[in-house]
Amino acid sequence: VSMVKREGRSDIYSAGEHYDEFIEMESSIGKTMDYKNPKSTYVRAKDIEGVNMGEADVRDGNFWKGNKGSGRSQEIIFASKVPEVRKQLDMGKTLDEIADDPALKGTVESYYRNESIKVRKYKDFYVFADSGRHRTIAGQAMNVEIPVEIIGEIK
Q: 79 and 142 in contact (C-beta within 8 Å)?
């Protein structure tokens, strides 16, 4: 995952595949419209932009330390197993049944029972809105689709 420090700003962003468009969008931001009924779906983590962290988080390595006890390597493992959990859900298994498998329990807890990753749609990518910075960056590193809640769009 590529980390980018914005000129003249103290925050650092994970750069997905639409970072330049994200920067362009920020400078000419239009109207944000939130949905009455957010949509739950899967999106490619690399199509999510605007996941930010403080400079100290990156410099001191604190970003992963403050993540509810799991570190970077554990989050990467959880992200790598999202496709398997999704496949089992598509086959009709429940989250409880999937979580009975110790190899998938962490992924179920992190991506499916934790607060949803919230994004807004902008053109052909998504802008991070709330909750799940660690999960999103881990998903970007593994180049997987992750479950999100699309809470609105940016025009």
A: yes
Report the mean per-residue pLDDT for the chain.
86
pTM above 0.70, yes or no: yes
Q: Which residue is listed with tokens 């989050």?
A: 75
H/E segment holding residue 20: helix 19-27
Distance separating alpha carbons of residues 47 and 144, to the nearest angstrom: 10
pLDDT tens column, 34-62: 889 999 999 999 999 988 876 666 666 66
Contact 14, 3 (CB under 8 A): yes
Question: DSSP character for 112?
Answer: I
* Residue in 27, 8, 43 with CA at minimum distance from that of residue 128: 43
d(CA 128, CA 122): 10
